[in-house]
Amino acid sequence: MLTFDTLKDQVADGTVDTVLVCFVDMQGRLMGKRFHAKHFVNGAWEETHCCNYLLATDLAMATPDGYASTSWERGYGDYVMKPDLSTLRPVPWLEGTVMVMCDVLDHHTHEEVSHSPRAILKKQVNRLKAMGYDAMCATELEFFLFAKSFDQIRRSGFRDLEPISGYNEDYNILQTTREEHVMRPIRNHLWDAGLPIENSKGEAETGQEELNIKYAAAMDTAEFHTIAKHAIKEIAEQQGHAVTFLPKWSHDKVGSSSHVHQSLWQDGKPAFYNESDELGMSALMKNYMAGLLKYAPDYTAFMAPYINSYKRFMKGTFAPTRIIWSVDNRTAGYRLCGDGTKAIRVECRIPGSDMNPYLAMAGMLAAGIAGIEESLELQAPTRGDVYQGDTGKIPGTLRDAAAALKGSEMLRKALGDDVVDHYVRAAEVEIEDFDRVVTDYEIARGFERA
Questions:
Q1: What are the percentages of helix, strand and coil residues in the chain, rounded to 5?
Q2: I want to staple 271 with a disulfide (CB 3.0 to 4.6 A). Which of 96, 142, 177, 266 is the partner?
């Protein structure tokens, strides 16, 4: 990390000439501007501006109607981007460049925009702080690495996609050695950018990779995840390769997830741990996990935000299909990790690689808080193959998840009606856009035979 004084010194001696001033959009992407570093340190560090449509677009940057916050009728005005100088960090994979993250403020009131992802997560973190707890989280980034570049794949119409390897490479050192020209700079550059990178490994499919980052405070974890995802795309492109965080890019390949590990701490100690409990679970942890389970349908749209997200939930692929918890069992939606130790935590295995970490973690924290406030009782863990059974199903489509989000009294209380309505509309936009498109599948299946 950088201090502002250090940045000024680096700008003065010519080491740094560019500052990326960024915020996180609804899709979890970095948006912003590239500042000449001298202009930034001379005054732009206080604030800059952006169009408010940037928190009301879809993946393709279209401007759909139906948002209360902004529209063509309202003229698409400005938001204030307020740099948080505590987030200054080098960007080692880009020459002479540093980055700073911003809060997004209303242009007139200078209050945080309630539906900005950073504000949504911050609100839940602060709720926990008021209760005396710190939220600690970690995320796993899974993605596919391809032989060709983004531009080559785009020009081919995204057809004939060829992963960088031809084998399932789960934990395979020989195959991942062949990919070190991409993965090594990813690990090293991100470490030098201040992210506590633990490791990378091959995942359970051809060309599939996983990057693991050490647990941290929830806000830091969301920032690490977002920056890492952005960097992986840029560094892969520098090496002539494309990556995708699409959860299910082929029906005959397993999908990519982004598991979220979480625990609460109090006064620097793990509050989920109780040495006298059979599994090491405190009463607080049991309440929290019961909340996660009870309200999982409500926040599924934050963990699986697109049509494609739901193609991943298939039996026998290590992706969950049921809202059930189990002890160290990778077939369950919620897995108890580190049982009997101070490292005890819950891993939510539902989120896909396309999640916005700020929104997904905010939904989980809100559900956990509700579990604590309601003193919910945690049922006994399920044992064996959790794929067997028809109860507690994860919402099967974005339509189902959007309906659950819309009707969630818990999230309306925790996040605010305006936030819930904003992201319900985001889901509706994805559904409407998909519904109007004729797919290759429909043509091939029915062109002659229908």
A1: 35, 20, 40
A2: 266
